[in-house]
TrEMBL record, chain A:
GO molecular function: ATP binding; hydrolase activity
Gene3D superfamilies: Cyclophilin-like (2.40.100.10)
SMART domains: AHS2
InterPro entries: CT_A_B, Cyclophilin-like_dom_sf, PxpC
Keywords: ATP-binding, Hydrolase, Nucleotide-binding
Record field: transmembrane: none
Superkingdom as given in the UniProt entry: Bacteria
Protein name: Biotin-dependent carboxylase-like uncharacterized protein
Record's keyword annotation contains Ion transport: no
From TrEMBL, chain B:
Signal sequence coordinates: none
Lineage: Bacteria, Pseudomonadati, Pseudomonadota, Alphaproteobacteria, Hyphomicrobiales
NCBIfam families: 5-oxoprolinase subunit PxpB (TIGR00370)
Record key words, sorted: ATP-binding, Hydrolase, Nucleotide-binding
A GO molecular-function descriptor: hydrolase activity
Gene3D superfamilies: 3.30.1360.40, Cyclophilin-like (2.40.100.10)
Matches recorded under SMART domains: AHS1
Protein's UniProt name: KipI family sensor histidine kinase inhibitor
Domain of life: Bacteria
Residue ranges occupied by any Carboxyltransferase domain in the UniProt entry: 15-215
Pfam families: CT_C_D (PF02682)
Length: 340, 250
């Protein structure tokens, strides 16, 4: 049960694919690596639906437990009954427990996953909310205080911790955002492309799941800023007439009519998504072959997360630990299936 | 794949294949709105459907280009770019019969709040405007912008009307609209700077219907004026999942 949360809190998963030809934006989690980390910690597939928090945190009450939960991304932290949960660690919560998600401290997006995922009817194969079209999510809208978030039944999964050097810096490696030039870089003069790659851009306050408006040296298209609409992918850097680039993100439209000077590589989208307004970003062009190599490396990293788990250290708060053991012991003892 | 793969005709020529990062390739047939270009896009799309290529996830036909979404782990983008150009050079004539939909529309009044203004702007009576809008056979060039939003080519050039300088934050679902030289049918309620001529009971997207999406790129559309009473009957049927658009002989 959601007690309170920011206005841009929603169900998100790996996205809604196969319908872009009908104008359906895939949507899906803004930070795929963080979504995957939250999911593997509770034994889920990497793209299982989770609650995405944007910037602001929130609080929830566990209405039916025990339930294994985890939080990852954006430097947000989870507390249960006021006790902080260690980063990248899943934890069991019980009926009546209050879960508190802190605001994102280092980024913008955090993911709360539950073992087995959320039991929400998918629309066109996905529970990801696409706000502009009212698809997916909690009956087509963001989550709000008072919403009950039904959880699918999960097999028993024990608390785990993610190892392998993953720290709070998940999706926040430094360095330029890498792009492949095109598809319409030929609309821009070479010195304009050099400006795009050489200057610093600032993430403006006008950002949402659809696109990130950047501010910096204007990029004027020598051949004009209107093209006959063509297809859009996540990461396209489109340049409208004012010359300030917009990076199109997960809720992008499927088609658009501005020239696209470059495309952010898929391996760097999570990092860009976590850039708060005011962040400075620079872009570096890489060869298409290199982008494909990095995409494969990125996907391998996500696939390997599930093998980078170990059992979580026992909770040092003995009262809490005792409480959990007592509860499960009582339940087990009275369960006729276990003890007829 | 290099920065650009072009057809045999050399620099600046179409078709050409450009990368869209590592997750898609776009094959461009030109940069204008043209039925022949769009026919090539759709023919290549049909070829890819008939002969699936490993690693191709989905395709998005647009006015003048085909966006090919790929899985970079599986696809070989360089080979795919070469394949796309080879296929584009040998497109078979479209064998499939074109589907033609008759779309009922209530024009003007509360259903098309801009009709009178647009007619006055072009020196036409409202009924002459309706006649001009109903006369052509439109071609569905692209579905985009919003789920089921249907972009149409074939608008009478006399009716070309620049988009509103103050876009509306919300127009009703299933609005029959024009903007610039284009015509369209909106699908679900959303923002728009286009001019509202009328409204159809047809739902281009209805999540509870099979198929959920009624109209596809390459289909043909004709509009037929109906009375408001008839609209109410059809709207009820459409809400219950009926297509209420007839397929007619082309």
């Amino acid at each position: 049960m959601m007690r309170d949360c920011g206005p841009a809190t929603s169900f998100q998963d790996g996205g809604r694919y196969g319908y872009q030809r009908f104008g359906v934006s895939p949507a899906g989690a803004m930070d795929r690596l963080a979504l995957a980390a939250a999911n593997v910690l509770v034994g889920n597939g990497a793209e299982t639906g989770a609650v995405e928090f944007m910037a602001q945190g929130g609080s929830l009450t566990c209405a039916d437990g025990p339930l294994l939960v985890s939080l990852a991304g954006g430097g947000a932290t989870l507390s249960v009954q006021g006790h902080p949960v260690a980063p990248f660690t899943s934890t069991l919560v019980r009926e009546g427990d209050r879960l508190t998600v802190s605001p994102c401290r280092t980024g913008l997006f955090a993911y709360l996953a539950v073992a087995g995922g959320f039991d929400v009817a998918p629309e066109l194969g996905s529970i990801a909310l696409h706000r502009r079209s009212g698809m997916g999510g909690m009956v087509g809208r963001p989550l709000a205080a008072g919403d009950r978030l039904p959880c699918a039944a999960a097999g028993h999964v024990a608390p785990q911790v993610l190892i392998d050097g993953l720290t709070d810096g998940l999706s926040r490696a430094d360095g330029p955002i890498r792009v492949v030039l095109g598809p319409q870089d030929d609309y821009f003069a070479p010195d304009t492309i050099a400006r795009f790659l050489g200057e610093c851009y600032r993430v403006s306050a006008r950002i949402d799941r659809m696109g990130y408006q950047l501010e910096g040296p204007a990029l004027i298209a020598a051949r004009g800023h209107n093209i006959v609409s063509d297809g859009i992918v996540c990461g396209h850097v489109q340049v409208p007439g004012h010359g300030q680039p917009i990076v199109l993100m997960r809720d992008r439209q499927t088609t658009g009519g501005y020239p696209k000077i470059a495309t952010v590589i898929s391996a760097d989208l999570d990092r860009l998504a976590q850039c708060v307004p005011g962040s400075e970003v620079t872009f570096r062009a890489i060869a298409h072959e290199e982008a494909v190599r990095l995409a494969r490396q990125y996907r391998a990293r996500i696939a390997a997360l599930a093998s980078r788990l170990k059992p979580a250290q026992p909770d040092l708060d003995s009262r809490r630990l005792l409480g959990l053991n007592l509860i499960s012991g009582v339940v087990d003892a009275r369960d006729p299936a276990v003890n007829p | 794949m290099g920065r650009e793969s072009r057809g045999a005709a050399g620099h600046g020529a179409y078709p050409r294949v450009r990368p869209c990062g590592d997750t898609a390739l776009t094959i461009e047939f030109g940069e204008t709105i043209d039925p022949d270009l769009n026919a090539k896009v759709l023919a290549l799309d049909a070829e890819l459907t008939a002969h699936p290529v490993a690693g191709v996830l989905e395709t998005v036909p647009t006015y003048r280009s085909l966006l090919v979404h790929i899985d970079p782990v599986i696809a070989d983008p360089e080979a795919l770019a070469a394949d796309l150009l080879a296929m584009a050079a040998n497109l078979p004539p479209t064998g499939e019969a074109v589907r033609r939909w008759r779309i009922p529309v209530v024009y003007g009044g509360a259903f098309g709040v801009d009709l009178a203004d647009v007619a006055a702007r072009h020196g036409l009576s409202p009924s002459a405007l309706i006649d001009a809008h109903c006369a052509p056979v439109y071609r569905v060039y692209m579905i985009g912008f919003m789920p089921g939003f249907t972009y149409l080519g074939g608008l009478d050039p006399r009716l070309a009307t620049p988009r509103r300088s103050d876009p509306r934050p919300l127009i009703p679902a299933s609005s029959v609209i024009i903007g610039g030289a284009q015509a369209a049918i909106s699908s679900i309620a959303g923002p728009s700077g286009w001019h509202l001529l009328g409204r159809t009971p047809v739902r281009p997207y209805h999540p509870g219907r099979d198929p959920a999406f009624l109209i596809a790129s390459g289909d043909e559309i004709v509009f037929e004026p109906i009375a408001e009473d008839h609209w109410r009957v059809l709207d009820k049927a459409a809400a219950a999942g009926e297509p209420v658009a007839d397929m007619v002989a082309s």
